[in-house]
Design a protein that fits this description.
With about 260 residues, the chain is an all-alpha fold. It contains 11 helices and no strands. The protein has 2 domains: about 25 residues, no CATH class; about 180 residues, no CATH class. Helix 2 runs antiparallel to helix 8, helix 8 packs antiparallel against helix 9 and helix 9 packs antiparallel against helix 10.
Length: about 260
Amino acid sequence: MDLTSLIGFLATWILVLASMASGGNFGAYIDVPSIMITLGGAIGATVISNPGERLKTVGGSLRSVFLFKEPDLVAMVQMLVSFAEKARREGLLSLEGDVADLDNTFLKKAIQLVVDGTDPELVRAILDTEIGVFEDRHSANKSVFDTLAEFGPSFGMIGTLIGLIAMLGNLQDVSALGPGMAVALITTMYGSMLANMFAIPTGKKLAARSAQEVKSMELMVEGILAIQAGENPRIVEEKLKVYLPPKMRTAFEQEEGGNE
């Protein structure tokens, strides 16, 4: 469970809803037709804008916002350095036995390419293509929420215009103008809430998740190519430490120093 996503989501909705209720008339912010126009319209337009296969991934994308295990870059560096040491002692073919034990399919594929004797340039090309396809897939998943964020305020405005037209058509009833204007504005509020309290944050979190995974994949590519080139394990370690954030790198170096 990603506590930052959960806390941020709950804090946003609880604080906004509490401020609405503090006026003493929370019911004034609830209008079913406005919800139907804004939420129904935005979702419908989003469905029209995206292919079915992409829409099927929405559930998985939402789960990854709240249930995501960040790549352990330190463990990845340690693993690749250990592979470098083994390959230097016993040869690249000795890594074949480690492939079956790996859970990471990308790393498994990378090692298998090296063990099979694939040309280094071809290995990089294949793995870079794999990363590119991965990024495209995640970008497509994110675009569903970007589309929802775009249509939410738009349908909120449509609802407001519908409310204003209905209100202006009944100007003879002066007492109904105030409530009519309030109902007309509610759809704009719903559209802004849908975009800024759900769709946009979700899209940004998915982009951050994708960047984290891509970074770990790039680390693996550099490590595997260095191993294939027969570089000294110490050089491999120095190359891969570049991918670690400063605090993580310091902790890693302290741990390595303590083990020596």
